[in-house]
Design brief:
The structure holds two protein chains of two kinds. Chain A is mostly beta strands. Chain A has seven helices and 32 strands. Chain A is globular. In chain A, 64% of the residues are buried. A twelve-stranded antiparallel β-barrel of chain B has the order 1-2-3-4-5-6-7-8-10-11-12-13. By secondary structure, chain B is mainly beta. The chains are: A mainly beta, B mainly beta.
């Protein structure tokens, strides 16, 4: 049942949360209160068949400063919505803003008209209007919900959504916490986009410098060959996140690093962490020093447990991990921005008021030749650009044999080497379908399958880092047909002008939808022709990542395509309608990296 | 440089006379959200009969395909296709994290896995979508919502995904010039408004003697269009308010970022007297530390003929080479010091000597660079 905010506040005040922060407590939903004991069934969340949400203006305070936020039911993040597989839900969303709004249910399988993308699936929710979403719940797992209107998501319009399975949960755990990672700025999103257009590297305050180079600072050391190629191409090897810790305060459950959100456990318990990256622009490296994590779910779908010490989580992805702290010890949850410009920090503790050491930010990584799509061609003798460890990783059965280097792409020599390497970084022959205009500053000459890479800066961290090749579906996707058609799409952009697109065409330029027949089995081949990672999200579906585990490929709704790399996805187009398909970096999407996937015939039509 | 000039000459023939401003919507005041609104009066949630509430037509329909293909195949090698993670913990207990007591798939970790039986399918050929994909309505949502409202929403959808309009104002130089004889001042600024491809540019530059009216002051209004990822074609008009007599010009130029991060700007001018002149500017930011930046800068002015009235002679008329060291207190505001050598050449120098003016020399520069 829906609980009013008043009720929740009252309960919170009676709950285990004391001291000076009490005044702030009303700003957080119950599950995100610091010192949360987890999500026992008794704790109020929004659940049941009827749920009411109100979108409005709020003020949000972090690190002693307060700013304007757009929130759902007055909290940032929004309330946890907890549902059960097999139920129906009606969610009435009331807009008290003076602008249109919307809610998209990220990762949910539902009829297209309930998907919540204005202009694609429905008209949007006008000011002072209420729209009621109604759909059956046909899945379980960890998901989230957020605005798909303008740049509201950056301002706090997001929250977690957890669905319990109809039967027993294959993941065994004694306690669970929802961990929502996000990024908060006191700059208005329109100011952020203006800065990016005025000076694309505005938020990057750690560009290579002469002094850094001369002083031997390892953050500034590149091989001469790398330096030459980057300068020649007008590319910045430190341009890793467009918007970063220069303006962002990284939040965990709405708490800044100093506020130290704390989740409680009893030693020996198996604690399930439902980690959601709800940020606008931030890719995080997540680790809990001293505590290995067993990854049991990715994007809400169960995977065979794999134990890691760290994983990179791109925007809009979710990972479920189980940890088992055995002693009476406290742990720090570190969510470090990929470019090391800041971190989100939280604590897992047996009691309130404890905190563990917070590790310092690690050395800022540098982009290298692989990120330029030059295959394994690292010129450098520098350890920073040495991706050797990923190549030395045990080959996944089947993945090498199945690797297809055809389709006009030069095969990347397994161990590098200059043979056959074209230095033409904008060769139309490498991407015949791309409109090679001002919006495309590079075409990867030799993109590689990078599903075995842990992500930028995690190649040599000295412990096990998750890669997409570690993910194996617990329950394979039932459609085992081989795909019958390849759809290749290039992720394109111009870093200097801050333009982003698919195949060189922005959505605003009247891009044609990507058309699929209902129940068609297609292979999507996404080639990243830029030097930034892009989390690509398809609405209303799960796709399988072709990662070497044929027959048990993991299901995901969002795939992080590494710079200069490609991924292949198998997709059953089983949900008729129009669906948004886009980069989930908010400002990339806003700049045009968006498409509509159109699946016909619709329900009720003759096939 | 020569190639650039040839290109400019070629392009100038076809350039419009006036700065164009095509396809632009004019700037609207940047849409700021309302201030943190009083949330005191929380509207009661109106759930009763929203106008457009609709039930999904087939609420519980599971996608057909998901039932179409039952998992086939007999496991050949139960472990093929699995990565055994290096971490001993997992290898030791592959079931960690799973509740083994249930009848869920985890009870048999290999159940449902097609181990090694199916090799990864190779990429099938690309091709057009099947005919069925082209059936049905153009917009699925129009079957569920009023088409007029969807049309409005689609217009917003398009514009919110790629049509960004922003502006920029950059005062690149604003400086005092301390030199032999009388000290001077100078400015060089530019502003633009528009999207990624088309922009309206305004440029202004000038100089003078401290305490006096400028000796040289010009304003350009240009339409700018992206030619490639880094360069823009710019065309429009220039008007020189100083010196006397005032002159108007047509302008065509190319501005952009050259390989190795050189900012360059070359322009051709055709005056209202029919005189042709050209200007080239280049600069480079050498980042010494995060905040300290050394900027070498070169400007060359050329003319095809003499214009005695304005004191410009044919050939290379004047050149300035400067070195400015700025400190970015914030990226938007940086004071600088610098030195510059500037002089007139050829007939221009003769005109100046005849007028009793300096031909050129060194200056010490103190100024600020700012943008917003």
């Amino acid at each position: 049942m829906h609980e009013s905010l008043i009720d929740r506040r009252a309960i919170l005040r009676g709950a285990a949360y004391g001291g000076a922060a009490l005044g702030l407590s009303g700003l957080f939903p119950a599950w995100a209160q610091s010192g949360s004991a987890g999500i026992p069934p008794a704790l109020p969340t929004l659940s049941g068949e009827d749920i009411n949400l109100t979108i409005g203006h709020s003020s949000f305070a972090v690190a002693g400063r307060s700013g304007h936020a757009i929130t759902i039911n007055g909290t940032l993040p929004a309330p946890l919505i907890r549902l059960r597989e097999g139920q129906n839900v009606r969610i009435a969303v009331t807009n008290t803003l003076d602008e249109d709004t919307s809610i998209h249910w990220h990762g949910l399988i539902l009829p297209f008209r309930m998907d919540g993308v204005p202009g694609v699936s429905f008209p949007g929710i006008r000011p002072r209007e209420t729209f009621t979403y109604e759909f059956p719940i046909r899945q379980s797992g960890t998901y989230w919900y957020h605005s798909h209107s303008g740049l509201q998501e950056q301002q706090g319009h997001y929250g977690p959504l957890v669905i319990d399975p109809a039967g027993a949960d294959p993941v065994g755990y004694d306690r669970e916490h929802v961990v929502v990672l996000s990024d908060w700025s006191f700059l208005h999103p329109h100011q952020i986009i203006a800065k990016l257009r005025q000076q694309a590297g505005y938020f990057n305050r750690r560009r290579p410098t002469l002094a850094g180079r001369l002083s031997g600072d390892p953050e500034h050391q590149m091989s001469a060959a790398d330096r030459e190629v980057f300068a020649q191409m007008r590319m910045d090897p430190t341009d890793i996140l467009d918007v970063n810790g220069t303006t962002y305060t990284y939040l965990i459950n709405g708490h800044g690093p100093e506020e130290n959100w704390t989740g409680l456990f009893r030693p020996g318990e198996r604690v399930r962490l439902r980690i959601i990256n709800a940020s606008a622009m931030s890719i995080f490296n997540v680790r809990i020093p001293g505590l290995p994590m067993s990854v049991v779910g990715a994007d809400g779908q169960n995977v065979r447990p794999v134990t890691v010490d760290e994983f990179q989580i791109s925007v809009a992805e979710t990972y479920d991990v189980v940890v088992q702290p055995t002693g009476d010890q406290v742990y720090t949850i570190v969510a470090e921005a990929m470019d090391r410009s800041g971190m989100g920090r939280a604590t897992l503790a047996p009691r309130l008021g404890m905190s563990a050491a917070v590790p310092p930010l690690r050395q800022r990584p540098l982009l290298g030749m692989r990120d330029m799509g030059m295959g394994g061609m690292d010129h450098g003798a520098m350890p920073r650009t040495d991706h050797g460890s990923t190549q030395a990783a045990p080959p996944v059965a089947g993945s090498m044999a199945g690797m297809d280097h055809s389709a006009g792409q030069a095969a990347a020599p397994a161990n590098g080497g200059m043979a056959g390497m074209s230095h033409n970084m904008r060769d139309q022959a490498n991407a015949p379908g791309v409109r090679l205009g001002p919006g495309v500053d590079m075409i990867a000459p030799m993109p590689q399958d990078r599903t075995g890479d842990p992500g930028l800066g995690l190649e040599n961290v000295g412990h096990k880092v998750l890669t997409y090749r570690d993910l194996i579906a617990l329950t394979p996707f039932p459609d085992r047909r081989a795909p019958t058609r390849t759809i290749e799409l290039h992720l394109t952009g111009n870093m200097e002008r801050f333009m982003w697109s698919f195949d060189g065409v922005r959505q605003s330029e009247g891009a044609e939808p990507i058309r699929m027949a209902r129940n068609e089995r297609v292979r999507l081949r996404l080639v990243n022709d830029s030097m930034m990672a892009h989390p690509i999200h398809l609405h209303g579906h799960f796709f399988e990542i072709v990662n070497g585990h044929a027959g048990a490929q993991p299901l995901k709704h969002t795939v992080n395509v590494l710079p200069g790399g490609f991924v292949r996805l198998d997709l059953t187009a089983d949900a008729p309608g129009d669906w948004a398909f886009h980069c989930h970096l908010l400002y990339h999407m806003h700049a045009g990296m968006m498409r509509v996937v159109s699946i016909r015939p619709l329900e009720g039509e003759a096939a | 440089m020569k190639r650039l000039l040839i290109l400019l000459l070629a392009a100038s023939a076809s350039m419009p006379a006036l700065a164009q401003h095509q396809g632009h919507t004019m700037p609207m005041p940047s849409a700021r959200p309302a201030p943190p609104a009083a949330r005191a009066a929380r509207p009661a949630t109106r759930r009763a009969a929203p106008a457009r509430q609709r039930r999904p037509a087939r609420a519980t329909s599971a996608p057909a395909a998901r039932r179409a293909a039952p998992p086939p195949a007999t496991p050949v090698d139960p472990h093929a296709g699995h990565v055994m993670p290096a971490t001993p913990a997992t290898a030791a207990d592959p079931h960690a994290g799973h509740n083994m007591g249930t009848a869920q798939p985890a009870a048999d970790p290999h159940a449902g896995h097609n181990m090694g039986a199916s090799a990864e399918a190779p990429d099938p050929a690309a091709g057009p979508p099947p005919a069925a994909a082209l059936t049905g309505p153009a917009y699925a949502a129009d079957t569920a919502f009023p088409a007029e409202r969807m049309d409005e929403a689609r217009a917003i959808f398009r514009s919110e995904h790629g049509r960004i309009r922003t502006f920029s104002v950059l005062v690149d130089l604003l400086e005092a010039r301390i030199q032999n004889g009388r000290d001077g001042y100078a400015w060089d600024a530019q502003a633009w408004y528009g999207g990624a491809i088309n922009r309206l540019w305004i440029k202004t530059e000038g100089e003078g003697t401290l305490g006096e009216r400028p000796e040289r002051a010009e304003v350009q209004a240009l339409w700018s269009r992206a030619l490639d990822p880094w360069f823009n074609l710019q065309a429009g008009v220039r008007y020189d308010f100083r010196p006397d007599p005032q002159r108007g010009y047509l302008v065509v130029g190319i501005e952009g970022l050259a390989p190795y991060w050189f900012e360059v700007d070359g322009a051709l001018f055709l005056s209202d007297r029919g005189d042709v002149s050209a200007r080239f500017e280049g600069e480079y930011d050498l980042r010494i530390t995060r905040r300290l930046i050394l900027q070498p800068r070169l400007e060359l002015d050329l003319a095809l003929q003499n214009d005695r009235a304005t004191g410009v002679g044919s050939g290379l008329s004047s050149a300035e080479a400067g070195l400015r060291l700025r400190y970015e207190i914030v990226p938007e505001f940086a004071p600088y010091v610098g030195v510059q050598y500037g002089r007139a050449f050829g007939n221009t120098a003769d005109f100046r000597r005849a007028a009793g003016e300096d031909v050129g020399g060194w200056s010490l520069l103190l100024g600020v660079r700012t943008w917003f």
